[in-house]
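Late entry, written up from scratch paper. The run itself happened at the end of the previous shift, but nothing got recorded in the book at the time, so transcribing now.
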Amino acid sequence: MGGGPSDQQDRLLVVLPMPEPKAELARLRERFPRLDVEFYQVGSLRAGEATGLADVPEDVYKDKNLLLTFTNLPKSLDDAPRLELLHLPSAGSNHIQKHPLYTDTDITITTSSGIHGPQSSYPHAPLHPTPVQKSSRSHLPPRLVQIAEWVLMTTLVRSHFYDQFHDAQKEHRWARYRSDQTVHDLVGQRLGVLGYGSIGRQVARVAKAMGMDVIAYTATPKDTPASRRDKGYIVPGTGDAEGALPSAWFSGLERAELHHFLAQDIDMLLVSVPLTPQTRHFLGAEELRVLRAGSSGSNGNGNSNGSASGNINRTKAPFLINISRGQIVQQSALVQALHDGTLGGAALDVTDPEPLPADDPLWSAPNVTITPHISGNGAAYLERSFAILRENLERRERGERLLNVVDRRRGY
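Output as recorded:
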């Protein structure tokens, strides 16, 4: 779909594991008076995944041409003969890529990647909040900002040994750093961003503010200023719209190209690539060894635009952060790397599988922080997803290209 709507009335089905978002549905109805909207709640986010397809009667899909849902898709394509557009509140689409709707149709699928306001090339949409708008929920921080804050939080918790002081506080003990502990600030350290999308760009912005050097890795080359620009949803004051923050760019999906990037004296590696067949187990034991060898300073930095400043402790094992999908990192290799010192630590908001079984060895690996895929949660999460849907419905009316359309060939 890329042209205007059909002659039939648009009917939207919203299926979510949470109570009805009445304010968002009201905004939709106000903007699109002829839009028929039906809502179903399935399960609860607090309880885990949506409770299943059976919670939505099959005949409900029959007359709907628009669908917003995380996972509740029609069992059969015959159940949704009118479906034209599927909008996912998630940033990725890997969780539906085996469904016939994805594999056997050309139905347009859009994601909520970025979940922030449209950039300046979309003049019909609000960009900067005015002074009276700043308290409005519609201008709350986007999901990528929350994820970047999670990255900074978990990084500093580890580098400043916060856990031991929190434990001491609960025990009413005045405990200082041990003699064998050294705190390294972030100034001059190098962040390698594996996947320089909207989240990677916001983390890079925060890292730069902390004095870090940033290098970026993308699937395809970004050799020109135009190719480095963020073409997705951004809002002024977040991210890296022009792609100006990295001091060096690397690209490719071949192992040799990935290894070249990993060998660039990286202190912190952020995993933010989408999960595709090409990126499944993208990082295994060999890649983690290359990352560790590179952090020793024995490799050239390959950086024609400058290098990190000289106070980096290159003997310190690198720190891995994964906010993408657990399957991108081979988990057994990750556990081994944490135990043998190949990695100095890890912050993981995603695991393989999820939920992580109670007896999984990752829980007890040294220097690891694990959270249950919540880094992007926040008050504005769903609101921003509906904002993208509204924007795309407006574009659809005008016959314009939609935002965040999934490229089935690339897998994201």
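The radius of gyration is 22 Å.
(Scratch paper discarded after transcription.)
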